[in-house]
Amino acid sequence: MHPDLRLTAVGRRYGIRGPWVLRGVDLVIAPGTLTRLEGANGTGKSTLLRLLARLDAPTEGRVTGRPRTAYVPERFPSALPFTAAGYLAHLGTVHGLPRALAARRAADWLERFGAGAYAATPMARLSKGSSQKVAVAQALVGDPELLVLDEAWTGLDAVARAELERAVAERTAAGGAVVFVDHDPHRLAGAPDATYTLHDGALGPRTDSARPGAAGPVTLVVARGPSGGRLPPEAVRTAVCVEETAPGSHRLTVPASHSDVLLRALLTARPPWHVERVEPAGAPPPDPGSRP
């Protein structure tokens, strides 16, 4: 597991006498956490994200810790001399993946975001929405330890937005950290472990998630009757542990902060899965002779 990424008394300004965009920022990003940054336009959110992604250096203060990082910028340079699949595969090799594995992951992520049909399309010919799908996919193809998202949902269709939420849940469930900015106040509502607000270049105090039991995992016991059927792929991806207890019945363990993602996947399946109960992870199964 990668170490914390830590900002200590960090400040950033452009030019020797330029105004301070950020000043006195102390921030710790721990593995397995989801962090939201809020603030009005011009308060330094994008600058802070670039510092976290190590794309920019602080004018003062220190940034320590070097998790393997991927970044989705607010504006993605789509006019690149690659096809969509070629660009993703190229980024995969940059992240150290063997060429064949990078190509497979490129194809998988394009399919997940509904852009598989554009795999061979030159980047410069993609629509804005398809280009944004590639922008998000390029950050995920290398399984980053830190994922930094600057308005990454903007321009995506509803299916791709939901897929990105699932990808965020997967990253944190696997021990990665995610930091994001989004204009929609309801984006991943209740899921962040911490929220910080920027005001005039200063980072406000941390607000922890108020979700009960957000610090630990929970287990959902679900069923679809004797006929059973496969669990939705997105439910399997979000869960950290899946156990089939009987034909058509499963126990799925998921970080509490991402239980909404799992529930949505189960309840929107066709036909939907029935959630029999939710319990703390590690709780003993009920006595078969007891009544529910």
UniProtKB/TrEMBL annotation:
Keywords: ATP-binding, Nucleotide-binding, Transport. InterPro entries: AAA+_ATPase, ABC_transporter-like_ATP-bd, ABC_Transporter_VariousFunc, P-loop_NTPase. Residues 5-225 form the ABC transporter domain. Pfam families: ABC_tran. The keyword Transport applies. One of its GO terms (molecular function) is ATP binding. SUPFAM superfamilies: P-loop containing nucleoside triphosphate hydrolases. This is ATP-binding cassette domain-containing protein. The lineage of its organism: Bacteria, Bacillati, Actinomycetota, Actinomycetes, Kitasatosporales.
